[in-house]
User: Which sequence fits this backbone?
């Protein structure tokens, strides 16, 4: 719930951002993951989706999410909720999005989803990276630009989180050495590809069936990277039909050997989950590293 005083302050802040008078009549809590408090708010201007978090802990979290959603929308590849405003009020950061009603999947939902992701991945950039650091979950995601994917993946993805896990006492020194050994092999593992616009956290919890029966994606960790990263992420927790993969491969085929690279591409989200949630994720990391 949002208490009445915060509701009034949020209404004022949103009104200022949108340059129209917005009065919040109701705020209904909805499922939005582990990181943010999420609400469907009813206002005099209709329904919106609202995220709240602690401004002291994550001051620019929603600014970066706003930018990522905007980047994905520019691609005009898949449906993405329109970000409307972000800001801070009473020690809380907020992000206001259009509210999207759930629909029923069209007959070729998975083929359509794959085609949209192909179009998104065809949006490219001179370098791997992004204009600024952003987040994956609550972890800082470094996006220093590099012309080489193996270098980018090692220095911006695998090694920073490996160091963080070691500093937190999660990883042993032997695991760090294994990760360093793998990073030296990355240039031989990955074929050269142009940087692709990635969602960055594409699992089944970060898309929904929109009112038109097609996929709508959200909660991104956007950057320009190797497209196999997005596809490996879709396989990590399941929820994607085999038709999705067949359609993607028929439209925008992956380079030979992609099957052998799935584990390496999944290392980044596995590192994230090891640090945030612990459990068996560390064993999954070690299983991948054991092959190298």
Assistant:
């Amino acid at each position: 719930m949002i208490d009445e005083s915060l509701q009034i302050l949020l209404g004022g802040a949103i009104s200022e951002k949108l340059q129209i008078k917005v009065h919040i009549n109701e705020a209904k809590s909805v499922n939005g993951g582990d990181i943010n408090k999420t609400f469907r708010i009813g206002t005099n201007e209709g329904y919106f989706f609202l995220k709240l978090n602690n401004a002291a802990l994550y001051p620019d979290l929603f600014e970066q999410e706003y930018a990522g959603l905007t980047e994905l929308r520019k691609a005009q590849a898949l449906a993405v909720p329109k970000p409307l405003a972000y800001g801070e009020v009473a020690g809380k950061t907020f992000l206001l999005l259009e509210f999207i009603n759930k629909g029923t999947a069209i007959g070729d939902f998975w083929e359509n989803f794959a085609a949209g992701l192909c179009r998104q991945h065809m949006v490219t950039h001179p370098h791997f990276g992004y204009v600024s650091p952003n987040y994956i979950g609550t972890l800082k995601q470094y996006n220093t630009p590099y012309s080489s994917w193996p270098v980018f993946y090692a220095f911006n993805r695998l090694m920073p989180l490996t160091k963080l896990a070691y500093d937190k006492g999660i990883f042993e020194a032997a695991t760090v050495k294994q990760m360093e050994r793998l990073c030296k092999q990355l240039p031989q593992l990955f074929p050269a590809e142009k940087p692709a616009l990635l969602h960055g956290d594409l699992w089944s919890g970060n898309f929904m069936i929109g009112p038109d029966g097609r996929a709508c994606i959200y909660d991104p960790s956007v950057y320009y990277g190797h497209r196999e990263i997005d596809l490996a992420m879709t396989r990590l927790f399941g929820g994607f039909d085999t038709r999705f993969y067949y359609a993607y491969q028929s439209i925008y085929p992956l380079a030979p050997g992609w099957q052998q690279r799935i584990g390496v591409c999944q290392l980044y989200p596995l590192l994230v989950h090891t640090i945030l949630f612990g459990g068996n994720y560390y064993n999954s990391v070690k299983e991948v590293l054991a092959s190298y």
